[in-house]
Design goal:
This protein has two domains: about 210 residues, Rossmann fold (3-Layer(aba) Sandwich), CATH 3.40.50.620; about 70 residues, Tyrosyl-Transfer RNA Synthetase, CATH 1.10.240.10. The protein contains 15 helices and five strands. It is mainly α. Helix 9 links the parallel strand 4 and strand 5. It starts with a strand and ends with a helix. Helix 3 crosses helix 14, helix 4 packs across helix 8 and helix 8 packs across helix 9. It binds adenosine-5'-diphosphate and tryptophan. Tryptophan binds next to strand 1 and helix 8.
Length: about 325
């Protein structure tokens, strides 16, 4: 199977990104799959206009992925902006994309509803660039979190339109969403997201991680009271990192009372630190490595070769030939 996915370097990756996307990406690297994973820096540019931060986040996501187990020998790992054909194909696809299709996109409607100060055109055409990212590599599956399903539907609609107008060219991609981790909630009970300031980072230093976990919203109870299990954010997060026995044990402490949320948060913090301990160590080592550019250049070359093939087909179909 051919697998493709991208992650936007718009901040520090969090547990939602890990459970909803990155973990699946890494697990899919095996003999049966040919994987393409990229850092969607052109997409990040729709909201991030700060060169220092862009540099830091792009590099950060590369380090995070490699530390979590992405193997650049097994997967084609690259920066979107290193394969210029993404922008080229996005333009071609935009000439076939009905305006109304993009007006219905949740992310666009949200941006309007939130009265975002600057609604740039890139934000509006975001799904077209995403369609180009995907269709360029003709993947069978696109593993993403639930919030990206609509973008996948738009990519399929655009592919169908292209195929209808110019003849069979693009394979219709399918989203692959892991049901158990479709939406990871953040410290305030909403979907965990960089945009909501409610994240728990994967690789923040221990003090920051502690601060993030301590900020999880809880009920206000007396220490001796039993703590409700239903809807508890600490438990919901803990379930993703602990064994079923450990979860039962913590639930029992909730039911008995006299435990308190401070201790429960400490249990979660320790579990998360333990879960990512090896990855943290690998990340520290990689941070000093001088091989990152070489790894990304190699990935870009591999991706460019596939992109050129797709574009030759597109030139032929559209008549954009010399
Ligand atoms: P954010 O909302 O924090 O900006 P991104 O849009 O960069 O996150 O998402 C990167 C990937 O992580 C996507 O595949 C997305 O579906 C997944 N993802 C993001 N937040 C969550 C979440 N809270 N639960 C599950 N998956 C998530
Ligand atoms: N829009 C995705 C996100 O916010 C990132 C992304 C860009 C992507 N291009 C993609 C994901 C192509 C999958 C396939 O997370």
């Amino acid at each position: 199977m051919r697998i493709l996915s991208g992650i936007k370097p718009s901040g520090r990756p969090h547990l939602g990104n890990y459970l909803g996307a990155m973990r699946q990406h890494i697990a899919m690297q095996n003999e049966e799959n040919e994987c393409f994973y990229f850092i969607a820096d052109y997409h990040a540019l729709t909201t991030l206009h700060d060169s220092k931060k862009m540099y830091e986040f792009r590099r950060g996501v590369v380090l995070d992925y490699l530390a979590l187990g992405l193997d650049p020998e097994k997967s084609t790992f690259f920066f979107q902006s290193d394969v210029i054909q993404h922008a080229e194909l996005a333009w071609i696809l935009s000439t076939l994309t009905p305006h109304g299709l993009l007006e219905r996109a949740h992310a666009w409607k949200d941006a309007i509803a939130k009265g975002k100060r600057e609604l740039n055109v890139g934000l509006f055409t975001y799904p077209v660039l995403m369609a180009a990212d995907i269709l360029m590599y003709q993947p069978d599956f696109v593993p993403v979190g639930k919030d990206q399903i609509q973008h996948l539907e738009i990519a399929r609609d655009i592919a169908k339109k292209f195929n209808h107008v110019f003849g069979e060219t693009f394979k219709l991609p399918e989203a692959k969403v892991e049901a158990s981790v479709a939406t990871i909630i953040g410290t305030d009970g909403q979907k965990m997201s960089k945009s909501y300031n409610n994240t728990i980072s994967i690789f923040a230093d221990e003090a920051t991680l502690k601060k993030q976990i301590m900020s999880i919203q809880t009920a206000s109870l007396k220490l001796e009271d039993p703590m409700p299990i239903e809807g508890d954010i600490i438990l919901q997060l803990y379930e993703h990192f602990a064994t079923p026995d450990e979860v039962m044990e913590l639930k029992q402490k909730y039911k008995t009372g006299g435990f308190g949320y401070g201790k429960a948060k400490k249990v979660l913090l320790d579990r998360i630190l333990d879960f990512f301990a090896d990855a943290r160590e690998r990340r520290n080592r990689l941070e000093k490595s001088e091989k990152l550019n070489e790894i990304m250049n190699r990935g870009a070359k591999k991706a460019q070769a596939t992109a050129r093939k797709t574009m030759n087909k597109v030139y032929e179909k559209t008549g954009l030939l010399p």
